[in-house]
NADH-ubiquinone oxidoreductase chain 4L
Amino acid sequence: MVNFYMYYLMIIMFMFGCIVFISSRKHLLCTLLSLEFMVLMLFMLLFMYLNFMNYESYFSMFFLTFCVCEGVLGLSILVSMIRTHGNDYFQSFSILQC
């Protein structure tokens, strides 16, 4: 019974991460942090589900590998944006420029 409450808690935390992702439009770093929070909540849900169904947790390692790749790509975009524009504000640069 406690596991179902944990599922509900993880789903609510994932929804809060979605709300923060939708509402943060100023900084790229806040957007990336909310994406990582959502990925961690999905990982916890996956891990709890695999343990509940008595499956092996081998698939969770693949999920973590792809999560790390997603985080690295986001950080590389953040670093290149800071090097070219000096900050991570979305309003400081125009997408139409080459």
About this structure: Residues 1-96 form a domain with the Helix Hairpins fold (CATH 1.10.287.3510). The longest helix spans residues 58-85. The helical segments are 2-23, 28-52, 58-85.
